[in-house]
UniProtKB/TrEMBL annotation:
This is SENP2 protease. PANTHER family: SENTRIN-SPECIFIC PROTEASE 2, SENTRIN/SUMO-SPECIFIC PROTEASE. PROSITE patterns: ULP_PROTEASE (PS50600). One of its GO terms (biological process) is regulation of primary metabolic process. Gene3D superfamilies: Adenoviral Proteinase, Chain A (3.40.395.10). GO terms for cellular component: nucleus. It comes from the Eukaryota. The keyword Protease applies. It comes from Aramus guarauna (Limpkin). One of its GO terms (molecular function) is deSUMOylase activity. Residues 26-190 form the Ubiquitin-like protease family profile domain. It holds the Pfam family Peptidase_C48. Belongs to the peptidase C48 family. The keyword Membrane does not apply.
């Protein structure tokens, strides 16, 4: 009940630019938090903050090592090529991670690419069942360049599997507004090596949990 009260207060009236949470060089305002209200589209700030919480949790023992790109990474890669994002990974060795998450913003839709470095797979997760084979290819190309640049090593394409998850393999949304929450929760379950078992029915609860988690900067 105490948590519920905090969520209601966060959704309440107040200055839109009031900072509700600030960590990892990121800020989330009341206006950002309000995108977590039912049937609203999540914005970049909420998604980037949540992804960073997943990365922080992964530093604990017993969790796969996770790295998450910002939502601004993929558009930059597509518009400017490898050169435009070369410096994004300074101080990070992608090839020492177990999992790399790339949030993909498709105009009015969010999807997720999961690069599993352990299994050499690049998978596209879309809660509306769309295909993202081209996106997987662009990201494999990026990894190839990153490997040459950082390790002077070529990746062997035939060792890697690239594919879009089929609609029957992963939970699908039944409305037009929950794609961001689906994307965040795909990442949450995968980052714990857990099967993805949630459904559309969990969305109202997940949204409230995310409000609490962002304000408290810890995952439940």
């Amino acid at each position: 009940q105490a948590m519920e009260r905090e969520v209601i207060a966060a959704f309440g009236k107040g200055q839109p630019d009031e900072i509700m949470s600030s960590a990892f060089k990121l800020k989330v305002t009341r206006e950002d938090i309000h995108t977590l209200q039912n049937l609203r589209w999540l914005n970049d700030e909420v998604i980037n903050f949540y992804m960073t919480l997943l990365v922080e949790r992964s530093k604990k023992e017993g969790h796969p090592a996770v790295y998450a790109f910002s939502t601004f990474f993929y558009p930059k890669l597509v518009s400017g090529g490898y050169k435009a994002v070369r410096r994004w990974t300074r101080g990070v060795d992608l090839f020492k991670q177990d999992l790399i998450f790339v949030p993909i913003h498709l105009r009015v839709h969010w999807a997720l690419v999961v690069i599993d470095v352990r299994k050499k797979t690049i998978k596209y997760f879309d809660s509306m069942g769309q295909k993202g084979d081209k996106i997987c290819e662009i990201l494999f190309q990026y990894l190839q360049e990153e490997s040459r640049e950082r390790r002077n090593l070529e990746l062997t394409p035939k060792e890697w599997t690239l594919r879009s998850m089929e609609p029957h393999e992963i939970p699908q949304q039944l409305n037009g507004s929950d794609c961001g929450v689906f994307m965040c929760k795909y990442a949450d379950y995968i980052s714990r090596d857990k099967p993805i078992t949630f459904t559309q029915n969990h969305m109202p609860l997940f949204r409230k949990k995310m409000v609490w988690e962002i304000i408290h900067q810890q995952l439940l």
